[in-house]
Amino acid sequence: MKWIVINKVFLISFILGVLLNACVRKYDSPPIYMGTGLQANTSIKSLYDSHIAGNNEQFVDNEIITGIVTANDANDNFYKTIVLQDSTAAISIRMDGFGLSANYPLGMRLIVKLNGMWMGEYGGMLQLGGGVDRSDPLFTELVPMPTALFSKHFVVVGMNSMPPPLEVTYNQLHDSLHSRLVKLNNIEFAATDTAKFYGDAINKITTSHSLKFCGGGTVYLRTSGFASFASIRTPHGSGSITGIYSEFGSQKQLMIRDTSDVDFNQSRCVSSGPSVLFFEDFEQYSPNQSLTIPQWSNYAESGKQFYQIQLMQQNRFASITALGSNETSVVSWLVLPPIQLNNTTGEQLSFLTRDAFDNGAVLQLLISSNYDGKGQPWKAKWAVLNANIAKGAIGGIGLGFTKSGNINLSNYAGQIYLAFKYSGNDSGPSGSRKNTNYQVDDVKITAQ
């Protein structure tokens, strides 16, 4: 009888357990790889190579990729997203679930069966997802993979060691590194962004902070207001930072997984050479459109020709030409932000120029102490600064950029403005046209 009583209790407990478990909703966990011979037959880079910019594309063949999970939602900075990286590239996967890190921890090798999935862009970043929202025909959006389909598309292989972050300099941050785990050295938060909260934990708003390379160049750190570390303050020092590289439009961005990705245990950037007061390399801005940069001014005095951002050989620069304007006079101004010289000494300016199809148009560097920054710079008093400007590329584009040399600004005080002034034309017989194309890059001001 005792044996029977024990089994009745066991039976009742078992039934209650089944009923209780039936009431608890669980995400469909990915199947564990059981050695069935399932293997990748394509690479992540090949997905980028096959993608048509601006399109949403569905996989209809049996493409399979594999890679290591390098970011997930463990600290809520990556929302409903994991990042998968193989030896060729990396890509974000949108997944409609919370607590993804439990099934897809960092270092997990994952097989992804792409058949039926979709590929599309967000802000120029390629992503994988479960479908496309076409409710707004002017703005289609990739939607996350439903949790019910996780087990169909994602197969867990097992834990691997994390791939080491790729150490890159500012100039090496290009499209090919989208979603890659990278490490940036000799970098610090801009002075105005130190001791600030990583994110806006109160309003749950994503925050952007400027990261400045000690040698010049800016990357923006993006942190969700939902991140567990949003209310922690940014450090004051310099050092290295590891994170997932992205671009939104043309802005270079980084997202960390936790504050342990930030190793700023050194003093603020101090170099043996001059300190950098100002630097612009135009890499943050979209090419093939009019140059629009905060605090810069882009004016057409005559001819309606404006400086453009152009891209060549993965390098962005400011560009101006009278070609195609059919104007008898083209005068265009590119005015830099105001520069304050009262607090420094030994200031010097340098920049790069390149000419193309040179037939006599002129590019000058000007300086003004009385321009008010409010428009029509040609009404202010300007002086020409001696600089080495590229010239002589008559039959095509110059082979390389020409260094301006170090231009002394130490004789000036207070607030100054600097400007590039282009003068040319594009009318009359071809022999009389002066429509040289000039390119300007790496504008830099240093001080002792």
Structural account:
The protein contains four helices and 32 strands. It has 448 residues and is mainly β. Strand 16 (238-248) and strand 17 (251-255) form a beta hairpin. The strands form five sheets. Strands 1, 2, 3, 4, 5, 6, 7, 10 and 11 form a nine-stranded mixed sheet that branches. Strands 19, 20, 22, 23, 26, 29, 30 and 32 form an eight-stranded antiparallel sheet that branches. It is globular and about 70 Å long. The model is unreliable at 1-28 (pLDDT under 50).
Give a quick rundown of the structure:
With 448 residues, the chain is mostly beta strands. The protein has four helices and 32 strands. The N terminus is likely disordered.
**Gross geometry:** globular
Provide a count of the helices: 4
Poorly predicted sequence stretches spanning 5 or more consecutive residues: 1-28
Helix coverage percent of residues?
under 10%
The count of strands amounts to 32
Q: Indicate the proportion of strand residues.
A: 35-45%
The end-to-end span amounts to: 96 Å
Structural class by SSE content: mainly beta
Please compute the radius of gyration using only Cα atoms.
28 Å
Main sheet record: 9 strands, mixed
Q: Averaged pLDDT, please?
A: 88
Write the layout of secondary structure elements.
Blueprint: H1 2-23, H2 44-50, E1 57-58, E2 64-71, E3 81-85, E4 90-96, H3 100-103, E5 108-113, E6 118-122, E7 125-129, E8 131-133, E9 141-143, E10 145-146, H4 150-153, E11 154-159, E12 166-167, E13 181-189, E14 207-213, E15 218-223, E16 238-248, E17 251-255, E18 262-266, E19 275-280, E20 289-290, E21 297-302, E22 308-312, E23 315-320, E24 330-335, E25 339-340, E26 348-356, E27 362-368, E28 383-385, E29 402-403, E30 407-408, E31 415-424, E32 437-447
